[in-house]
Amino acid sequence: MSRTLVLLIVIVAALYLALCVALFVFQRALIYYPQPRAVGTSGTLLTLPVADAQVLVSFRPHDGPNALIYFGGNAEDVSRNLPEFSQAFPDYALYLLHYRGYGGSSGSPSEEAIARDAIALFDKVHAAHPHVAVVGRSLGSGVAVRLATQRPLARLVLITPYNSLEGLAARQFRWFPVRWLLKDKYQSWQYAAHITVPTVLIAAEHDEVIPHSSTERLFSHFAKGVASMQVIPGTGHNSISESPEYLKVLGDGL
Description:
The protein is an alpha/beta fold. It is 37% helix and 17% strand. The chain contains 10 helices and 8 strands. It is globular and about 80 Å long. It comes from Pseudomonas synxantha.
């Protein structure tokens, strides 16, 4: 083997290793895209009782047994849903979690931190409302499905859900050892089989981010009769909420 070829192999290997290191170091910047909060004054915000951060929740109070908790996507300002949800679900108190680093919440997002915050939010809400429906969209579907195995939800709705974030990342970065590099894997399929609460999966017909095969694999892990799946025609991953069918299908799942 010539010296030039050996040098070329060494350079390529070094570049590949450098890319793997960069992917490992900056991976959460590729997963989470924190957004500022557009809607909400001090009167429509509450702070979760967690010790290591100031985690904010946009909410619409309502007396009665029903509450809805919403976990949004990786680049979503959840407060933008508050006016529409308030009109569509007048009999529900609404709680929309701003992940750490999002919407004025302090700290940095991670799977484990968000999972702990989700439990803290549920416990706070459930103390006042015995019937708590949980909705998770895109990234938030992984938060919601995990919570459903840890707390007594009344209903579960998953919008554009995935089988696992690990699987999506491996598909996106197929030349890298993603399964060893990834910290936040959001393996929703591991939790699905243990869920007994009525669940609805809502998919976009033309989802360009999460393949139908990923959503269908997740659906297959639920026990028979627990979950149903609906596809909203003519919609994409980000445009699904613009469909006139969106709130109706969402409401049917509550």
